[in-house]
Amino acid sequence: MRPEALAPPDPMMGVVGVDGRLERAGELYDRAVFGGDVAVLEVADRELDGVEADLALARGRVLHARFLDGQSDGQGDEELGLFERAAELYRALGDVRGEGEALLWVGIFHQVVRGDEAPAAAAFERAHELATRTGDKLTLSYVLRHLGIAEHMAGRLPAARERLEESVRLRREIGFMTGVAANLVGLAYIAAAERRREDAVAVLDEAAEIAEAEGAATVLAWVEEARGQF
Predict the structure, then answer these.
(1) Could you tell me which of 16, 41, 119, 193 has the fewest CB atoms within 10 Å of its CB?
(2) For residue 2, what pLDDT is reported?
């Protein structure tokens, strides 16, 4: 099973919010400069910290996509720094959902880019806690996916299957069907490792059907690669 992480299906998420916060910061500047209400500058700082956090997270994800495409050298220092900065800012702002998402990507970085499971596990554990607290099912589905990958790589197949199946359930619930297809490929590898070849083939067929409907060419390529292995 490949440990690649698909980007969430909401690439414009936060754009309207960012614009609104920038506009709000401008209004607060006017109040401070022209109205003499300098106390509002602290609020402006918080608005801009939120924008910075969103931007750092988005830039980190773009760098991660470049890594997956082979466009980076694999060192990833800038990518990790962006994810850690986002987590720091969200934490300071009291944005629990944002912190959980940023920590998810810290974990993905350590697992996928560095192949270092210890810091990845710590980040995933904290991200799982925060995503559960805020009901962030998308982030939780990613955490479970990558915990499943870790279990699979360690040879703990039943635990890996349990994690991925729960991730699939969440992704179906929120309509993230491309993510469902990606997880089904992982479940097919697990089924094959458990010598359940018929189940593996059936799961791959479903993954291919979903991926084709969603226009997920990369997932379709994973399906074909898997078919050639069992």
Answers:
(1) 16
(2) 43
